[in-house]
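Reopening: Methionine ABC transporter permease still failing for me.
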Amino acid sequence: MLVNSDQIIEALIETLQMVGCSLVFSAALGIPLGIALVVTRKGHLLENAPVFNVLNGTINVLRSIPFIILLVAIIPITRFIVGTSIGTAAAIVPLVFYAGPYIARLVENSLLEVDPGVIEAAQAMGATPWQIVFRFILPEALSSLILAFTIATIGLIGASAMAGAIGGGGLGDLAITYGYQRFDTKTMLITVGILIVMVQGLQSAGNIAAKKIRRR
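Support: Ran it again with your exact input. Result attached.
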């Protein structure tokens, strides 16, 4: 049995759902963590070595686990949260665990690129630490953050395809079920082509948006 266009469209929608939902939850986790990693580090606004060391170590541990292993390792957590370990909703949980720490590192790197002179100027004006973060550092780092989230989204697309290995749904599941297990080369090529187009489109859009922000 060959795959049809309806199955491809359904798989594409599932992939978009996985990537979109996991990006939102990962950003909600990663942005605060990234900010905390910056402001609590030595010599920064809210220097706090114990907090920084705990956050830094935890993120390093999570980022060191290959995604395919993470998928299996947190199955009990996935079942507890969504009630199942198979399907699109179940794939979102490990995707968040995978992308959250990654986004935290990307945010950290983007914020550290901000010229220290900007922070010094804000302090001279009497701004509080959180005013400095939200009114000075984040706006200055916006162009870099856009590129960072572009990279994170592309990473999620690749990870969502890998989630198909355990029945996560989406294009990855379609490629494995039909393209690999049933030797359907056409389906494999179609799914790979769609993923390439998605990645190219996202990267181009991210580059354009970052360039426009940089010119302001």
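The mean pLDDT is 87. If you still see a failure, please send the error message rather than a screenshot.
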